[in-house]
Amino acid sequence: MVENIVKPLRNQQPDKKILADAAPRAHQLAKGLDEHLSKTKWLVGNDITMADFAVAAPMHIWAAAGIPLDGYANVRRWYAEVAKVPAWHNTQAAVEDVLLPKSTATTNSTTET
Fold first, then answer.
1. Which residues are CB-neighbours of 70 under 8 A, at least 6 positions away?
2. Which residue ranges form the domains of the chain, and what is each CATH number?
């Protein structure tokens, strides 16, 4: 998120080496989360909990941040469910308006694509 969101907001270029170095770990974490979510609807069982919001919070602009969720269907399904929660859904547009250039805000849908 720092490289792909914060730096451009500060008129700085993302560091491609940092992004490349972080990619294997990001995939490892996404794979683990995806495997966990293949067994349960929410992180801690059948009901949404604070854990879901805590884990989803840094993912709210996953596409623009370059978080690799392609290929992780269970993570995307789970995130789409979090995004349907009225309090989450009702604040997403404001978050995108502040953090994303207008050209990318529309690509960070809160629903599964």
1. none
2. 16-105 (1.20.1050.10)
